[in-house]
From TrEMBL:
GO terms for molecular function: phosphorelay response regulator activity; transcription cis-regulatory region binding. Residues 5-121 form the Response regulatory domain. PANTHER family: PHOSPHATE REGULON TRANSCRIPTIONAL REGULATORY PROTEIN PHOB (PTHR48111:SF40), REGULATOR OF RPOS (PTHR48111). The keyword Hydrolase does not apply. This is Phosphate regulon transcriptional regulatory protein PhoB. It is found in: Cytoplasm. Keywords: Activator, Cytoplasm, DNA-binding, Phosphate transport, Phosphoprotein, Transcription, Transcription regulation, Transport, Two-component regulatory system. Residues 130-228 bind DNA. Its main location: cytoplasm.
Length: 231
């Protein structure tokens, strides 16, 4: 895969070092700084493929800094993932309003961060042509639009592909049927929620041929999640 250049802006040293380790393990080139002034200096040296930005920073908040650089034509197209301990819905809206591309609430898993990064880079065309996403033995090849397990292709419909892609880029999280409809089918499409159940069953049946049906889990009273951890 073409090397991805990531700029990390995080003032807590322990978290900054953890991010560098996680991203370098994923074969990404990482530059890490502690505040927005240093971040601007790095931007002047080289424009990154993606910015991982903490909300609470000394001097200027990450949200305000994101707002400012998004107004600059040179930096406006750089994808941004916002990291924060805030979980309230209005705070997420504030982040998206300034132009950030995704939002991760601390604590988060390294695997989820890597998956989110690859999903954003794929959407923005910054992921290499040989870009692949692999979790729990399931591989998505974005170039060939193919799903495989152990090198063997799975016969999935376009909808099942999108559903599996969403699960792989949001591992461990529980989503209701309505949320899955919004994310996979689109908010402008009117489809009954039980349609989700039908595709979940089909996806499990496909994965069952490889002993992986337990990856797609039902969380009673809430919805579904994709996880290697059994309950």
């Amino acid at each position: 895969m073409t090397e991805i250049n990531v700029l990390v802006v995080e003032d807590e040293e322990a978290i900054r070092e953890m991010l560098v380790m996680v991203l370098e393990t994923a074969e990404m080139e990482v530059r890490a700084v502690a505040d927005t002034q240093q971040a601007l200096e790095e931007l002047d040296k080289r424009i990154p493929d993606l910015i991982i930005l903490d909300w609470m920073l000394p001097g200027m908040s990450g949200v305000e800094w994101a707002r400012r650089i998004k107004k600059d034509d040179l930096f406006a197209d750089i994808p941004i993932i916002l990291l924060t301990a805030r979980g309230e819905e209005e705070d997420k809206v504030r982040g998206f309003d300034v132009g950030v591309d995704d939002y991760l609430t601390k604590p988060f898993s390294p695997r989820e961060l890597q998956a989110r990064i690859k999903a954003i880079l794929r959407r923005t065309g910054r992921l290499g042509k040989d870009g692949k996403l692999e979790i729990a033995g399931v591989t998505l090849d974005y170039n060939e639009h193919r799903v495989s397990v152990g090198g063997k292709s799975l016969e999935v419909s376009p909808t099942e592909y999108r559903l599996l892609e969403f699960f792989l880029t949001h591992p461990g999280k529980v989503y209701s049927r309505s949320q899955l409809l919004d994310q996979v089918w689109g908010r402008s499409t009117f489809i009954e929620e039980r349609t989700v159940d039908v595709h979940i069953r089909r996806l499990r049946k496909i994965l069952a041929d490889h002993g992986l049906e337990d990856l797609v889990q039902t969380v009673r009273g809430f919805g579904y999640r994709f996880s290697e951890q059994t309950t």
